[in-house]
Amino acid sequence: MATTEQIKLLREQTAAGMLDCKKALDLHNGDLEKAASWLREKGLAAAAKKASRDAHDGIIEAYTHLGGRMAVLVEVNCETDFVARTAEFKTLAHDMALQVASTGPEYVKKEDIPAALIDAKKEQFKQEAISEGKKPEIAERIALGKMEKYYQDVCLLEQQFVKDDKVKVADLIKNAVAKIGENVVVRRFVRFEIGGQ
To answer: Could you report the per-residue pLDDT of 60-73, keeping only the tens digit for each?
Structure first.
C-alpha cells in the first residue's frame, strides 16, 4: 500500500494525477523508479492517441539572438487557449524557437520536404558512393544512411534537442503531450538573420 509521502514524491517527479500515482505505486510495491517508468509509458501511449486530435489554438513564440541580428518566430499549437497560457506550454514554445535559432532547420518534419528534393538527394548520395568505388547495392544502403543524417540536419522534429542531446525534438513534444494532456503540434517557423537569404 502506497504511503502519502510516496504518492506526493511520485507526483512531483512525474506531474501525474494522485490516483494514477497511487495505482502505479501499488502495482509496483512502492518502487518509485518502476512506478515512474510505468507512468511515463502510460503517458506516451496516451500521447500517441492524442496525436490525431485537432490542435487549433496555441501561441506564436518570438526569439531574438545575437543582439537582434537573428530572430525566430515559431507557431506551436495545442487544443485549447487554457493550455496555451500554461507555463509548460510557453516553455515548450520557447524551446522550439531556441532550437530553430540554434540549428537552422528548413522544415518541420520529413513529410514537408518536396519529394523531388528527396529523390535528388538520394541519387546524389548514391552517385557519390558509386564514384568512390562502391557497388550499386552498397551505394543504395549508404545513400539511405546519409538520408537519415540529412533529415536530422534539415527537419526540426528529427534533430537532437539543443538543451539535451539525448532527447530528439519529436520525443520532447511527445513528452509534452503526455504531461499537458492535449495534442501539441509545431505548425511552422521562420528564421531571419541579418544578411541571410
So the answer is: 999 998 788 999 99
